[in-house]
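Q: Fold this one first, please.
A: Sequence and structure below.
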Amino acid sequence: MKRTAQAVWSGALRDGKGSISLQSGVLKEQPYSFKMRFEDESGKSGTNPEELIAAAHASCFTMQLSHFLAEAGHPAAKLTTDAEITIGPVPAGGQEISRSALTLRGNVPGMTEAQFIELANKAKAGCPVSKALGAIEITLDAKLEG
């Protein structure tokens, strides 16, 4: 199976602009720019590659965990995962993604906190996006609620 995305860019890095489109059509010619990526700390002016990586990581990890929970006989009532990607300058110049921090809150009837955390760590290590992000630090803050 393959999935595709397309990026189009015009101009130089700082004053240029581009658009991102996804195979699914969920994003179609969605604008992105240097400002959106590196200067808008609120993240509200538009998307950027790091936000898309965060979405991919959160969704992949959560799906992987739901599989492990169901296999253990405890399908989740609800799992909520936030992913925060850290990007910043490096001494040699340029930028580098250094970390993905996952914050998980789960409502899983009949499961102990220890079981939940064990399976969450297994999902963190095993989800395909985590594997693809193997060059960066991946952290997990997992709590069972409800």
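Q: Good. Now the second chain.
A: Here it is, same layout.
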Amino acid sequence: MEIREKTVDRNLLLELSGELDHHAARKAMEEMEMAIDAAVPLKLVLDLGGVTFMDSSGIALLLRARRRMEALGGNLMVCHVPDQARRVLDAAGINRLITIR
């Protein structure tokens, strides 16, 4: 799992690529937390376009991002979700909690 970050003003874009499974999720969560702490964004965009596989660990990552952004008074958007990851998110009903484009 690789995460690239871009910050403009108080907007943070995190581009994830690779497999987001149990093994990668812990490191991805740590990197995401550090990026949020550094940027203190009002808007966080998670770009999943490069994710090749995602399991329920990816759901945990998205929910943690949502909680962090709510605590900061900001919002979260997820974009470019590949088909396999979309099926995982749809099965869990995540689209009722998080904006997915």
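Q: Anything worth noting on the second one?
A: The chain has one domain: 2-100.
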